[in-house]
């Protein structure tokens, strides 16, 4: 088995030998079944300018699956053993059962196909589920992946329009659906304008800015420096969509190629969904991996995984500056192993927008580079630079984490994942060394869910009533002028409202100055 020797008994002993450094790693025997292990990862992308020539998501996913099989060292024989094909929901093309469609393309016959609901938490949540199924014996080998072709879809809509002749399978809808399928905002929130991440995450950011006591310029400089570190990682990541190292000013300063989208976020602080990317993982039991001849240096073990939610409706949360659900989920994964964040060598913090990163850093008490903590906060470069393929980004982050753990044997890496508006959460811990007590999955402590606020639309408040502003987001036009602003504010009784204002002078001032903490009247925003 290529330098791999195994003795089965009270403990599993692996000997990985090479010419320069023969080492022996002792693997504790799992009390039930050998732990799940990731043995192969694949990542692919396409930068095809002609939509008619571009491959569809399923084709990219097929390539990623083949690369994952090759990466394992076992090749197609491992894919042939896959009894489960699990897909992160594909948004940019409809496949009734993407797992069944992929299996046909690969020439394999799984007995189970799985699909997730929409949400950036989905890949980690799905892997948590697959690890459970491996441990229970329901699954021996699982192929997991996802793909999106948003860049091609957008180009196909441009004139002259291109009709995409992509797969139209007629399978019944996949019956094994993992995840919560629920709108991210209530009807009242959507009516108030909280209808997309691009306007909600800036509210989180300005609330965080106020909590940190920073001016607009101070916060802009700090965030630019943070994201410059992310772009540096992307520049050295062969799988990143953009491999350009941007300076802090390149990221933080609006310009012709970095226009302000929703203040305080210019383009380079926003997730880049206009990508064509796919990623795949092969997960199996340790026993299957050994039987397949997988080399020990290809194996990375999921140590623990957790899932959780925040107070679902943003307007009902106690604070917009923090995410108790993220904190509870991350600490649940750490607590399952009896460790804290200090034991983690590297992170991949979900980074759809800087406020998501700040929330994760707060939840894990990470100082980051500015605080003298040099541990990586991303192994991909994040959604702005490595690419943000809808719900599937974290499949890429897990694949990159596997590579990082292989290169630093015995170290621990952590991924965080989230969906909607810091709403749905998942976390995972990984290492080339197996968990001493076997794989562990846990749920977050949900004690924070009881601490909620009341929400009222501004039209239900007396126009003379006074409010304290807690967060702002200014939606910009393509020419760089403010279109309107969303303002989250609290009554003296602690009730939250969200108002929209189109007053040009007010909107312009909110871009340049901190309004958080100011006292205003309801009528001032009408």
What does this structure look like?
- Among the domains are: 34-183 and 275-298, Thiolase/Chalcone synthase (Peroxisomal Thiolase, Chain A, domain 1), CATH 3.40.47.10; 458-525, OB fold (Dihydrolipoamide Acetyltransferase, E2P) (Beta Barrel).
- It is 30% helix and 24% strand.
- The protein has helices spanning 57-72, 76-80, 98-106, 122-136, 150-157, 187-191, 197-212, 216-235, 248-252, 286-291, 324-336, 354-364, 382-385, 393-407, 504-512, and strands spanning 4-7, 11-16, 23-28, 36-45, 84-87, 112-116, 141-149, 177-178, 260-263, 265-266, 276-285, 301-309, 346-348, 412-419, 424-431, 440-443, 466-476, 482-491, 496-501, 519-521.
- The strands form four sheets. A six-stranded mixed beta sheet has the order 4-11-7-5-6-8, with helices on both faces. Strands 9, 10, 17, 18, 19 and 20 form a six-stranded antiparallel beta sheet that branches. Strands 13-14-15-12-16 form a five-stranded mixed beta sheet, with helices on both faces.
- A hairpin with a 3-residue loop joins strand 1 and strand 2 (11-16).
């Amino acid at each position: 088995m290529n330098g791999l020797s195994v003795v089965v008994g009270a403990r599993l002993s692996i000997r990985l030998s090479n010419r320069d450094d023969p080492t022996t790693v002792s693997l504790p025997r799992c009390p039930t079944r050998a732990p799940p292990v990731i043995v192969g990862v694949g990542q692919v992308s396409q930068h095809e300018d002609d939509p008619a020539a571009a491959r569809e998501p399923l084709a990219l996913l097929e390539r990623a699956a083949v690369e994952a099989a090759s990466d394992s060292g076992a090749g197609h024989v491992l894919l042939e053993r896959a009894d489960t094909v699990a897909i992160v929901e594909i948004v940019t093309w409809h496949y009734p059962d993407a797992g069944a469609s992929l299996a046909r393309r690969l020439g394999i016959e799984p007995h189970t196909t799985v699909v997730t609901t929409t949400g950036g938490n989905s890949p980690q949540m799905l892997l948590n589920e697959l690890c459970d199924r491996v441990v229970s014996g329901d699954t021996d080998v699982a192929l997991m992946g996802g793909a999106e072709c948003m860049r091609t879809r957008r180009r196909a809509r441009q004139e002259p329009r291109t009709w995409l002749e992509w797969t139209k399978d007629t399978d019944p809808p996949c019956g094994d659906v993992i995840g919560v399928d629920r709108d991210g905002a209530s009807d009242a929130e959507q009516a108030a304008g909280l209808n997309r991440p691009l306007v909600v995450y800036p509210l989180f950011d300005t609330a965080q800015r106020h909590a940190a006591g920073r001016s607009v310029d101070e916060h802009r400089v700090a965030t630019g420096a943070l994201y410059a570190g992310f772009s540096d990682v992307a520049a050295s990541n062969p799988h990143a969509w953009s491999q350009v190292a941007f300076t802090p000013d390149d990221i933080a300063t609006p310009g012709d190629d970095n226009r302000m989208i929703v203040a305080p976020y210019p383009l380079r602080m926003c997730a880049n969904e206009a990508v064509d990317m796919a990623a795949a993982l092969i997960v199996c039991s340790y026993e299957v991996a050994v039987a397949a001849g997988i080399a020990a240096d290809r194996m990375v073990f999921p140590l623990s995984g957790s899932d959780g939610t925040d107070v679902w409706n943003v307007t009902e949360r106690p604070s917009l500056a923090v995410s108790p659900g993220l904190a509870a989920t991350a600490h649940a994964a750490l607590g399952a192993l009896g460790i804290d964040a200090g034991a983690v060598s590297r992170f991949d913090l979900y980074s759809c927008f800087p406020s998501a990163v700040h929330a994760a850093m707060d939840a894990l008490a990470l100082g980051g580079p500015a605080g003298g903590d040099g541990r990586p906060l991303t192994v991909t470069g994040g959604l702005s630079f490595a690419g943000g393929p809808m719900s599937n980004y974290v499949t890429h982050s897990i694949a990159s984490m596997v590579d990082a753990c292989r290169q630093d044997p015995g170290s621990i890496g952590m991924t965080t994942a989230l969906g909607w508006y810091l709403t749905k959460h998942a976390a995972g811990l990984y290492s080339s060394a197996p968990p001493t007590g076997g794989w562990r999955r846990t749920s977050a402590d949900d004690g924070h869910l009881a601490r909620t606020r009341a929400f009222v639309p501004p039209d239900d408040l007396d126009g003379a009533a006074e409010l304290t502003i807690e967060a702002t987001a200014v939606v910009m036009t393509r020419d760089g002028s403010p279109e309107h602003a969303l303002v989250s504010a609290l009554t003296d009784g602690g009730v939250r409202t969200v108002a929209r204002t189109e007053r040009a002078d007010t909107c312009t001032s909110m871009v340049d100055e901190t309004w958080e903490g100011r006292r205003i009247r309801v009528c001032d925003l009408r």
